[in-house]
Structure formats: structure tokens, C-alpha cells
Fold each of these.
Amino acid sequence: MKIKVISRDPAEYTRSTKGDIHKVATNLDPKLHPLEAPREFQRALNAVKLERVFAKPFVAGLDGHQDGVFSIATNPKRLSWILSGACDGELRLWDLTTKKCLHTSVLHSGFVNGVCCTPDGSTAITVGRDKCIRMLSLDRYFGRSDSNVEVEPTKILSNTFFTGVDHHRSQDIFATSGGVVELWSKHRDTPQASFSWGADTVTTVKFNPVETNIFATAADDRNIALYDCRVATPIRKVIMKMRTNAICWNPMEAFNFTAANEDSNLYTFDMRRLEQAKVVHKDHVSAVLDVDYSPTGKSFVSGAYDKSIRIFSYNGGHSNEIYHTKRMQRIFCVKWSLDAKYLLSGSDEMNIRLWKAEASKRLETLSARQRSAQRYADSLKTRFKHHPAVKRIARHRHVPKEIYRAKQEKRTMEDSKKRKAANIRKTPSKKQKSPIAFTNERTTNILEEVE
């Protein structure tokens, strides 16, 4: 006679610790769970509500500057180090883990218009309108120097003023912008090469982190130009309707860069096709002053004259997040940390603010159960993200009254223009020779491409 015996492994129902919950066997057959979808929808709704409740992005403020913070740079060899330059010529080295200033020195007699680090992180390079390039050694703070005596920063005098600086990804050269674009080496006091295309001031310069020999510039005559440091002639340029204030390359897509414009929009271009923008990023209501990409290349942060910081997806037309405070003034510079977890902003009221890249993310170390619950909540929000109730809560953001009113006024003006054009198309006048064509937003603000 055969006897069937039920055998179970104790590991399937025994708790690993006393504090652990009891394991319960569940049958995942959908016929046994007819209310699974409504139940998961309610969980998704609760998850997105809790996400907005716990969205507190501000982490810390770094005080110490005596004037507005005009430029920020990260150190490629130290994750927690940042450099900040102020409008009074002061440069500070900060440690974000302790929120303390490690070094302070006045290097320029005016604005610190640009600051960057060498690839090995040992030297900080700053430029200003006083026609000086200053190079500060950071070996003392790395522990590479035997002496604790402060080393005097190297000084290079030029014939023209400077508005920006950026270092090559691997080679020992850096580019400066100003009256002309110049390539320098820290071992020489004269430029290795000089580039110019037009007569106006070049306001910013940025090296491509992937195609490292290519760099982009923006000038006061509203053009964005591309150069190759291996040849003596420029590659091409595009002329916009309004001036571009800042440029940043996508670190994961070699051909794409984003430009921050005076018309309150950001434009993502493919450098092979500059006749139209790939994406137009909207939502700011005033001039965009700076932009910086995440190390992952999936999103970027922008700071504007409207006293707000916005986070955009690299291919999204509208922002995913907005950060603001009552005391924060015009945003001069923004920077993404090298671990893609934090944002830095420098503003007109002398503060550097540290923000979370994900507003509701917890900073402490999570247990295995907490990580599992977080993954489940994220999957529920992704599953029901297009449901109107979930979408409304996820997209809602409180904004300052000034921004809310300016955005309403801007939307009213845009709707009025569209309505007027539509009415003219319906009932054209006899004097009108040709019908009004439909406009493409990706080409409206671009005048021409020049090669």
C-alpha cells in the first residue's frame, strides 16, 4: 500500500530572526484574486501620495561667501569636494560630507567667471574679467605635499578678458572664452591656439566629454559654434533668435548638447544637424542662466532668472521637478554631483544649496525589507502612471505665486497667437497672397545654420 506524505522544507516557513515577520504561503492564481487590480490601484495611489508627502529635497546650505556665487565646479578625484567662485573674486573649496570650507582665497579683482579642475584633480583653474588666469594647487589637501605651507597660486596675464573656462577630458589643455576662444596649457603662459568666428564676446565654452577634441561655444551675437582643437578652422555654427547663456554636453550621447537660452527655453541639438532642435524644453518663465547634465545622461538640471531650479528628462519637453525656496534669488550656476544623487546651486544671495536629485528618496541605508517595499511601490507607480488620479497627484507641484502668474500669462499669449493664426487660416483676407504656414517649435527660434 502506497501512502502519500506531505513534506515541507522548514526554511519555507521558519523565520530567520525573531524580529522577522512570519512567512505566509500565497497562491498567485488570478482566479483566486478577483480584486487584485483594484487593490493594487489603491496601493499605487497611496504610494504616489506618500511620495509627495515625503518630497523634501533640500539637504543643506553652505554659507560663507560675501557676494553672489557665480560659478561651481566638481573635483573628478574627490566625490565630496566642490569649488565655488563668487562675484567678489573669492574662491572656496568645500567638503560636502562635513559641510565645511577647506580653503579660501581671493584670486580676482571682480567676478570669478569660470572655474574648473584638471583631470587628476590636483589643480583648480579660475578666470575673470581682470584678464587673469589663476591656477591653485590642491596637493596640500590630497596629502601629496610634505609641507603645510600655502602655495601661491600661479598667475597668467592675457590681453583679453575671460568669461568662461573648461578643461579637456584627458589632455593637459584647457579652453577659455572671452574676446576670442583660446587653448592653453598650464605649463605655458601663452595660448597654444586661438579661434574666432565673429566679432562679439564669447560667453561660454564646453568640451565634449565623449568626442574630447570637440568643444562648443556661445556668443553675444546669438550663435552657438562648434570647434575642433586639432584643426585651425571652426566646424559650423547655428544662429538663434536670442542669446544662449550656457551649454552642456550629454555625457552618454556624443553628438547631443543642450543650450540654455534667454527666451526661457532650453534646446537640445544634434551637432550633425543644427538646422533644428531635437527637443525644446519648456517651463521656465524667465531667462535660463545655467544647465548641467547628470552623469547618467538621462536628465539635466537648469537654473533660471525666475529663482527656480528645474529637472528635465533628456528627451522630455516639460520638467519633472521644480525646487525653490523663499529666500533663494537668481540662480547663477547649477551642478550635478558625480554620483548623480545630489544637485548644487549657487545664487545671488551668497548661498550654495545642496539638494537631493530625487526629492522623496531616503538618504539613510535601507534594510532588505525596505528596499523590497520601495521596489514594489515603484513598480505600482509605473504600472498606473497613466491613470488620471495617479497622474494628477504625481505631476502636481506647488510653485511661487510670481511663477504661477507669469506662466499663466505666457500660456495666454501663446494661445492667443495660435488662435489668431487659426482664424486667419479659416477666413483669409483678399490681400493675403499665401496662407499662413504651420510653425514647428523646433525651428521657430533658429534663424540659420552656417558651415
Note: The chain has six helices and 29 strands.
Amino acid sequence: MAESLRRMVNNGNFTSLQDKLEKWLDDYHINTNDQNVARACELVELNARVQGQLFTLLNLVASEGGLYGGVNTLKNRLLPWLSSGFAASAASVSADTSLAVLAEAAEKDRQITEIQSHYEQQLDNMEKDLVETKDDAAALKAELDETRDELDDTRRKSTGTMMATEDEIIRLKEDQVRSLQNRIRDRRLQLRLTRDESSSLRTRVDMIGDYERQVRVLRDEIAILRGERAVLENGLPEPLPPLPPPRPGSPTHAKLTDSVRRSRLIGRYNDLFSIDRVEALTTLRRYIPDDEEMVQRIVFVGVQEAFHAAKMAFRAMRLRVRKNLAITHIGPETLEEAVLDYIVRNTDLFDVNGAVQDTIRAMNVNPKISFPAEIDFNLLHPFIREVCRCGWGMCALEPPLDISPATDAELYNELKYRRSYDSEFTAPLVAYHVWPALMEYDRVVVKGEAVTKRGASLSPRRVTSPRPMSPSRSRSPSPTRSGSAMSVSSRPSSRSSPRPYSAASSYVSY
């Protein structure tokens, strides 16, 4: 209660009411009727607000006295005043109380006026500060514009310098590239000249070797002629002394490199099976997607025909070389050794393209394989070429290596073949071959691969080719091929073994 009373005293509502009354009095004759009515209403509202606060205080005071606290006073003073409609309230309220309230209201109005004047002064000061700040901002903006202009000038100058620098760098790079190209061209020219010189030197070395042989031959002939002349001059019928036995010559190049070439060719044969054959199978499956057996047969027949073409080319070249060397050959090595050494040294004389074409022609007339009409076996040209090279190199070994003869429905031999993954492991007969075995006479060097199935027939599987058949599609019996087929089980007596009969020759002989 005391706190509420203190707040009401500090508010100064009565002082404000008194000040408003005084201002109304001063301006009463100046104001219009509406303004005076408004002032009166304002004073009534302020008086009602003050009375409401007083009633609140009265309620608090009465509640502090308990349930019946201040009852007599309220009966004697408040109720009669309320019944008269606030008309007789002036007699019960003292003049001092109303004057205090008006004084407080006037004091509040003075404080409000002072606060308003202080606020307006602060507002003026803030406006002045704002004007000064705007001036400073304008000055800073001008300085910023000048600095931006200077920066643009510097950027333009640096851009021009950078462009000039980039042009110089590009020019330097072009000069360096040009100089490097000139160096590379000079190096290539030097390398070409060096190769030419090396080839010419190699030719000279070969010529020197031939000259040394001819010198030895001439020396022997001179010695013989001297002996004959001595006999004729002396008239002695004594026989000529026997010539000293020829001293054993050094091993030829073919013998020195035989083991190295053998191991390299065996490794190449394995690579042909594991790498080149897989690539050839992938190529064939694009055109024959539904017949895996035919794809395997085509590759196998290609290997057989390529080895046969390589052996035929090797025999022809060996005959030519022997015929040419037989006229002039004399030396510690035999004629066969000289022939083989010459062939090993001049492997570039092998006509690989001719052997490949012979192989493709033989495959075209083979009745056991077929191919779509829109393409031909030239798709396997890289594979056949490598097989021909390998077969040629194996013919030049001592002893030579060759693939084993193979026929369909032959008895499966575990020493020569291994079964493929899709074979019937209890079947005793070979349905068809995947890869031929590599043989050195009767000894197996590298195992081949075959497919074994039950019910394998001796008669070859007839295939229908969509390409038109030529009159030469069927191969007629040949005495040479038949003889080769009959002598395949015997050990060859000459250097190159006869061709193992292929599927086509077995079909003809059958």
C-alpha cells in the first residue's frame, strides 16, 4: 500500500492537472468553443484517471483492515457521495488535497517540457554531426575515385607489359621448339647415316669372309699346282703327299644360337596359344556367335596349314641355297651346315606374305570349316602371319620342332594333349582339337589341347557354307599328301619332316 502511494505521489498527476487548468485559464478567451470543450474533456479524463488511482488505493487500504475494516467510514462518507452522483463531493474533499494533485500535474508538465527541449537540442546536435559525417564521406568518396583511377591506369600499363611478356615467352617457346625439331631431324639423319654405314660395314664383313674362303681355296690350289710342277720338272713318278686333314672349324652361327632360338621359339609358341589364339577366337566369335566348335576348328586348321606353308617355304629355300652354295662351297663345315647357317643369318628372305596366302587358300578349300559369305579368312591374317614365322624358325632348329599330326576321333593321349574345360573326362576319343602339340621327333615338348566327347565319329562333320562352292572346293587325293599321311608315324630321315596330314587329307584318304 505504501509503495503504491509513493508511486502516485511521484507521478505528479495533480500538478499536471493544475498546470493544465492554468493554461486553460490563460487561453480561455483566445480559444474557440470547440477548443475549450476539448480542454474541459481533457481535464475530466485526467481527473477520472486520478480518481481511478485513488479508488485503487482505497481498495488496498480497506483490504488491509480485514473483512470489516473501514466499514463505518465507507458507510458514512463514500456511500453518500456515490449516491449523490459525485455532486456533493466537493464538500467532503479538502482544498489542500486537490491543490496538491494539481501541483503534481503541473510539475510533471514542466518535466515533460524540459525533456522535450533537451530532446530537440540533442536532435539538432545529431543533425549537425550527420552533416559533418556526410561531408567526410564525400571527401573519402572523392579520394576513393582518385585511387580507383590510378589503379585503372596501373592495370592498363601492367596489362600492356604482360601482353608484351607473353608474346616474348611464346616467341621463345617457338624458337625452342624449332631448335628441338632441328636437333631431332639432325639426330635422325645421323641415325640413318649410321644405319647405312653399319649395313655397308656388315656387307663388307660378309664380303671379307667370302674373300678369306676364296683365298684359302686358292692357296690349296696353288699348293697342289706347285706339287704337280715339281713332279713334272724332276720327272719323278713319286705320288703327291697326302693333303693334311682339314682342321676342325669353329661352330657356325646356327649352332651357337640354336639353344637360344629354341627356348625363344617355344616361349613364342606358348604365347601364340595364350594370347594370339584368344584374340583370334574373339574376332571369329563376332561373325560366328553360335558355333564355338567351328570357331575352335578354324583356329586349329589355320595353325596346321600355317606350319605346313612354313615348312614348304623352308624346303624350297633350302634347295635354292644348297644349289647355289654347292658350286663354290669349300671349308671346314659341311654343305648342310653352311646352308643352315645361311638360312639362319638371312631370315628376312622368308616370304611371309606368300606363306599366309597359301595358308588362306588351303583353309578356303578345307571341307571341315566354313565362314560367312560376306567375309573371309583374311581376318586371321595377323594370327596366321605369326604362326608362319614361328613355324619357319622351328624348321631352322637342329633337330627341328614340328606340330604333331592330329585326326578327329583318334584315341586320346595324355602325353600329348590335355582336356579342355568342356570335355567329357571319361570319353576315350577326341571329338576335335583345340591346339596342336609341339614335338621333337617322338618327344613331346609342349602339350596341346583337345576336346573329348563320347560318340566321336571317325567321319568328319559335314558343314554347309553359305558362300558359293567353287569346283576346287573339294580337295582331290594327292600322291604327295597321301604319302605324307602314310609316313607320319615313322621318324623323318631328312631335316624337315613331312607335313602331318590335316583334317582335309584324312577325309580324302578316308
Note: Confidence is low (pLDDT under 50) at residues 87-93, 236-249, 459-510.
